[in-house]
Amino acid sequence: MRVTLKPFGPVDAAVLEHLRRELGIFGSVEVAPEATVPPNAYDPKRRQYRAAQFLDASRDEPGDRVLAITAEDLYADNLNFVFGYASIRDRYAVISTARLHDAKPSRYLERALKEAVHEIGHTLGLEHDPDPACVMHFSNRLADTDRKGTAFCRRCQGTVTFTLKHLGR
User: Fold this and answer.
1) Which CATH architecture fits 2-166?
2) Which alpha helices (DSSP H) does the chain contain, by range?
3) Closest listed residue to residue 80, CA positions, set 119, 118, 51
4) pLDDT of 66-85, one tens digit each?
5) Every domain of the chain and the residues it spans
6) Whole-model pTM?
7) pLDDT tens digits for range 158-167
8) H helical segments located in 2-129
9) Rounded to whole angstroms, how far apart are CA atoms 78 and 68?
10) Has 30 been annotated as catalytic?
């Protein structure tokens, strides 16, 4: 599988490099040129960006999966904010680093990786998992992200393996 990382606006180079290296578990990973943040994504009342607009803005990118990355604060319908957002029926996802920062750079990078793997998992057909250690567990706050691992539980890994096999990857 080929994963394309698509930065929207300035994104920390350390995050891009960490994700490029670590997401190799899915196959080849390429970093696309930076694009401007979609202007139609901004909601001035909320002072946040609509996550779904980043998926729409990623549609022309090549790759079996496209992960948009932004430093902007994202939200989705009925949620105050999201760390990431994906389409289960499509190949597009987005993560935001806006709420992932930490005094320890290694924790910041690990949080970004967990959210990236989680959102790519959605594009492979996975839903949220009840196991708080599984990367597919829903993160309502940073403590949830910090508690879970970077790996899929056995059940989710089985689905990922099946999906990747049927994608011919």
Assistant:
1) 3-Layer(aba) Sandwich (3.40)
2) 13-22, 51-57, 105-123, 142-147, 154-166
3) 51
4) 999 999 999 999 899 999 99
5) 2-166
6) 0.96
7) 999 999 888 7
8) 13-22, 51-57, 105-123
9) 21
10) no
